[in-house]
Amino acid sequence: MSEEIGFRALASQHLPLLQAWLTAPHVDRWWHGPQDLAGVRAKYLPRIDGREPSHVFLIESGAVPVGWIQWYRWADYPVHAAQLGASADSAGVDLAIGEVEQIGLGLGSRALRTFVDHIVFAQPGIAACLSDPQTDNTRSVRAFLKAGFAQALTIQLTGEPYTRALMRRARQAGA
Asked: What is the pTM (predicted TM-score) of this model?
């Protein structure tokens, strides 16, 4: 039986762990985040203290941190949302499994499904959840598909040399 998936709000004491994950080759290839601790602090402290409207959590498997996941309302990021065609009643979600030995075990899809069901869709007014991983990040695209998302389209954002797969999951009627 697989370990239970849980989520804990990211706190400042978790930033060294997040920095280690961001510099791991299997994450850095796709995430394009800050590499040093100062850069991680600059990017994530505003999310932790509420100055920025993204909500970041650790993903835990059996109470052990293995990655992170975040959600946000696309209305708070109108430029990116407009390129995706994301409506004001949709949320975005991003994640990464930081511990390389946890890759390929189905953890990402389980975390996505649980997080979207119990955290994102628990928010009032959210009708759909969208994400846009790079199309050649096939592991991520498969995780979204296994978590109940459908690929809506392929898009290339302004200024990016790669394409993205727009993954969409609607809130179930009555949920």
From this structure: 0.93
